[in-house]
Amino acid sequence: MDALRFHLFYRYVLILLCLGFSTELAYGQDEPSLELNATHCRLCHREAPKDIDEAGLSHKTQVSCMDCHQGHPPQQREIIPACNQCHVDKPHFALEACLQCHKNPHRPGEVSFPEKTTTPCLTCHEEQGNQLEANPSFHSQLSCTACHTAHATPPACTECHESHAQDMPAGACTSCHEAHRPLVLAYKPDTPTAWCADCHSDILGKLVGSRSRHNNLPCTSCHPDRHGTIQPCRSCHGTQHDATLLSRFETCQACHNTAHELNL
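User: That's the sequence. What structure does it adopt?
Assistant: Structure tokens below.
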């Protein structure tokens, strides 16, 4: 019986020694470490790869998980990269707190703004900032996010402003007014007279009551291209009187009243 016990004990010790030796081989210093790749990441991380697949932009096409997350706990503790690890050489990339706007780096094109944000926007949209500064208006006093609540989605002007005319289609405002210099009015030759009438109703009333052919012309015939432009009478009518008469009267209006209510 003692011999049997000794034999069993001997086998038990031998098994333990073998197990210890195999463990040392598996985790010893000479064993090459396992290199992680994106396939391994997807075994545990479901949401981030899904976001990358749906809206990753260049984070999907130009980098892999391991390009940004270089390692994994417990071997590597600091696994969240700084954005400027890759994003450099532009003023916008020098901003701090990227995640205030780009809240999900796996969907980098989906941007949401803190309230009253302007300075970060101008690092990319310098031209718009220059226009607002060079052409002061009420818009110049607003933050960018007062109008742009979502990135790359211009608001409808009618969210704040009423249309000039009932028949103005959606989006017609920007055919005359640029949002970042709204008081600089430039328009096309086919701009309807009704759009002008809301601000110039008194002038239109005089024009409609006039007996001249001017009342059949669109406003843009005499006021082309930009608001406040007045076409000289001679551009259409030429020189109707001799030099002696013209020398006595400096302007056509001296005799004919204004173009909107002519004395014929």
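Residues 72-157+174-185 form one domain.
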